[in-house]
Amino acid sequence: MCTMIATQIKVAGSGKAGNGWFTLGEANVSYDHLFEAPFEHALSLDFVNEALGPSARVSVELDVASARQLVDTINAILAKADRGGYIVE
Amino acid sequence: MQYATNQYEGMIAETIVIPGHNGDPIGAYVARPLGPGPLPAIVVIHHLPGWDEWYREVTRKFAHHGYIAISPNLYHRAGHGIPEDIAVQVRATGGVPDGQVVGDVAGALAYAVAQPTCTGKVAVFGTCSGARHAYLAACRAPGFAAIINCWGGRVTMEPQELSPNQPVAPIDYSNDLACPVLGIFGEEDSGPTVAQVALLEQALIAHGKTYEFHMYPAAGHGFFYYDCPAYRQAQAMEGWKKIWAFLAQYVG
Question: With an 8 Å Cβ cutoff, are B88 and A1 in contact?
């Protein structure tokens, strides 16, 4: 079904799409239908820059286990970097 | 429709611009058989993944079966690009507002009725979120002669699912429905579930509406989509037969 479970956050960084790197503006996170992966629902991450138009988009579709593992890994990596004194915010 | 091999057949299919909600110009894809008619019509409402190739094909399929078919671009205001890029943008901002959808579908209905070859009888068809939108439009935009709801999710909604763009569950408009409903569903769908379909059926019974529901075993969400793993050939072919019979009965 269309869950419409989606949210958008502002992000800073860069993404690489077919036409090369572009400056990111937003990340769209959803748990809903997919366009490509063979699941009925999954976690979609779309890194976009709305100011550059809809084609400024880097997309991934992950099954739930992969999404959870990715979140844990990102947190673990950031925690390690923090402990090492590498993160200055 | 059974075609003979020596029968004349012709079709025109093209993108046009029609007045949508509040008179806003929106794109629409129209396919119609050539010839003087008269022909019934159908408004074809795209699903959440957007105004995409499958919907182009289905619009032409309806025309092949003798209908003036028009598929409005409900995401027109989000800009233009490949359909999934636009769909992602629309989803991220909470989806298209229900009131706007009803206005856009009413615009497509008005276009169909105004065609000189149209009988004036118009159905509305949708799958997935498009079926939800079809149900909304059939309740809120007067003039449809039949509605085909293919696995429309979130026709029933929990209070926490309501949002500024989707403030009322479509099922709550059921009393306003003025045309028969065909429902095509899969037993393995997670939305609408079998229980949610039963709730919709109960609402239609309670309001004395004419309906015909078909629940297919071993099928889930989107089992007509031949380009997805969800495709179930036998169930899809049976579903299409139900659609043609339903349209013949109520729209012509």
Answer: no
Q: Please report how the helices B98-114 and B129-140 are oriented relative to each other, as an axis angle in degrees rounded to 10.
A: 70
Look up tokens 């479509």; give the residue: B170
Instruction: Look at residue B29 and give its three-state secondary structure.
Output: strand
Give me A83's structure tokens.
């402990």
Q: pLDDT tens per residue, chain B (252 residues)?
A: 667 889 888 999 999 999 999 999 999 999 999 988 999 999 999 999 999 999 999 999 999 999 999 999 999 999 999 999 999 999 998 899 999 999 999 999 999 999 999 999 999 999 999 999 999 999 999 999 999 999 999 999 999 999 999 999 999 999 999 999 999 999 999 999 999 999 999 999 999 999 999 999 999 999 999 988 899 999 999 999 999 999 999 999
Residue B133: name the closest of B161, B173, B185 by CA.
B173
Residue A75's alpha-carbon distances to A10, A69, A80, B150, in angstroms, are: 19, 10, 9, 41
Contact assessment for residue A28 and residue A4, using Cβ atoms and an 8 Å cutoff: no
A6–chain B nearest CA distance, Å: 6
Of residues B213, B203, B165, B173, the one with CA closest to residue B21: B165
For B8, other C-beta atoms within 10 Å of its C-beta total 7
Chain A residues near residue B51 by CB distance under 8 angstroms: none
Q: Which of B77-92 are b and which e, b meaning 16 or more Cβ less than 10 Å from the residue's Cβ? A: bbeebebbbbbbbbbb
Q: Choose among A30, A40, A55: nearest Cβ to B85.
A: A55
What ipTM was assigned to the predicted interfaces of this complex? Answer: 0.83
B231: CB partners within 8 A, 6+ apart: B222, B223, B224, B225
Instruction: Chain B: give the shortest CA distance to residue A15, in Å.
Output: 15
